[in-house]
Amino acid sequence: QPELGKTMRNCYSLPGPDFTYGMYMHKRDGGVPEAIGHWDSVKAKPHIRVMPRDFVAMGRGAVDEGCTTAREFALYYKFRDIRLKDKDILRYGCKIPPGMTFGRPPRPSTPFFDLMQHRYKELWMESQRARTVVQHVVKKKIGEVRENRTTFLRTHPLPVKEESFWHPQRFEKVWAPH
């Protein structure tokens, strides 16, 4: 019977201090001296990446060979296995090609000599002059009246047609009663 207001006690006795709870793993553990003296180094294996199939190139090649049916295409795909090219050259562990740099290229420096001689002001002034000339020419063209069909016909009248007294031959041989 448990005591009043208390839970029932566990009747099992705990194992001694040399007992190991869980599973014991047999491995060498020489402490700090072995950790410093003998590093477990893992040599990297070369990562060979299998690229997916290039169905666009295979389909193009099959058409060039003259394949027309699905069975011929399947046979071509079976015997001609074309893979995609690996464009991802900067993957983890890959070597960077020589001469390759990262980031944006720097802006070219402004020539100080051009600043001192007001070269940019002169270039701007030339562009403004050219712009005003173009605007003047466009304005002049707008002032002129465009020639349409009516004004053309007033200045160049059509030639007068001569009236012909020609009649079809079937009207010439009409029988007339006397």
TrEMBL record:
Q: Which gene encodes it?
A: Cfap77
Name of the protein in question? CFA77 protein
- Please, which domain of life does this record's source organism belong to? Eukaryota
* One Pfam short name: CFAP77
